[in-house]
Write a structure and sequence with these properties.
The chain has about 260 residues and is of the alpha/beta class. The chain has a domain of about 140 residues: P-loop containing nucleotide triphosphate hydrolases (Rossmann fold, 3-Layer(aba) Sandwich), CATH 3.40.50. It is about 35% helix and about 25% strand. It has 9 helices and 10 strands. The strands form 2 sheets. Strands 6-7-8-3-9-10 form a 6-stranded mixed β-sheet, with helices on both faces. The protein has a 4-stranded antiparallel β-sheet with strand order 2-1-4-5, covered by helices on one side. A hairpin with a 2-residue loop joins strand 9 and strand 10. The two termini are about 25 Å apart.
Length: about 260
């Protein structure tokens, strides 16, 4: 399916004909998409359909077998590209937090700007405090991950991504490991980022979030994009019967 692109939109992410297999398991089968500056797109679909692999290929954590990825004017899939320089522009928020357990929240956020961007300890510390405040955790700056709830850990992860001044943030099911009562505090931060114009590609089944902020929802199955549309159209009038079935199941499970 072709992607609608606003005439005046600046393309931040371009994915063309992405294929990826692990042994005999064909995980991605020709995925293409575009993401404009300030857009939020939400990817939904059954487990094992390639959603996380898509994000990993965009960030070069996995190398696609075929296809190309661009971040602005830089081809991420070019084997000569400085991939560390590219990754510095892409925030990645995992479902499992990936915080350093021996570092405080402040140090977890501060370490990237110091090591990658060459900021001084004081400068990076000030930035880290600003980002922790942005996600509502300034009072937890000196806490270690073991002292934080799951929702707080995920908000520290988001602050860590923001401290790198990313061009794009990828979210891989950021609320799936959280207790139900903690999901809202993470989604609230993400909704705020979307409203502030952060460019985001989000793998999630949180349909309330998708309805609130997604410019477009992409339904993936069997390694490809089956249907994509703005949420108001996708929820009300899905064109593909498989999309409709999946949305009905989500409604039965989550009541959204």
């Amino acid at each position: 399916m072709s992607n609608p692109v606003r005439a005046d939109g600046e393309i931040v992410l371009r994915v063309e004909d992405l294929h990826k297999a692990y042994a005999d398991n064909q995980v991605l089968r020709g995925v293409s998409l575009r993401l404009l500056k300030g857009e939020t797109k939400v990817v939904i679909g059954p487990s094992g359909t390639g959603k996380s692999t898509l994000l990993r290929c965009i960030n070069a954590l996995s190398v696609p077998d075929r296809g190309r990825v661009w971040l602005e004017e830089t081809e991420v899939t070019d084997r000569h590209v400085d991939i560390n320089k590219v990754r510095a522009k892409i925030g990645f928020v995992f479902q499992s937090f990936n915080l350093f357990s021996h570092l405080t929240a402040l140090h977890n956020v501060r370490i990237g700007p110091m090591r990658v961007r060459g900021m001084s300890k004081a400068e990076a510390g000030r930035l880290a405090m600003e980002e922790l405040e942005r996600v509502g955790l300034a009072d937890k700056a000196s806490a270690y991950p073991a002292e934080l709830s799951g929702g707080q850990k995920q908000r520290v992860s988001i602050a860590r991504a923001l401290a790198m001044f990313p061009t794009l943030i990828l979210f891989d099911e950021p609320t799936s490991a959280l207790d139900p009562e903690l999901i809202g505090e993470v989604l609230e931060v993400m909704i705020g980022l979307a409203k502030d114009g952060m460019t985001m590609l989000v793998v999630s089944h949180e349909m309330g979030f998708a309805r609130a902020v997604a410019d477009e929802i992409l339904f993936m199955e069997h390694g490809g994009i089956v249907e994509q549309a703005p949420p108001e159209r996708l929820f009300a009038r899905p064109e593909n019967e498989r999309t409709a079935q999946f949305l009905r199941k989500l409604t039965e499970l989550y009541g959204e």
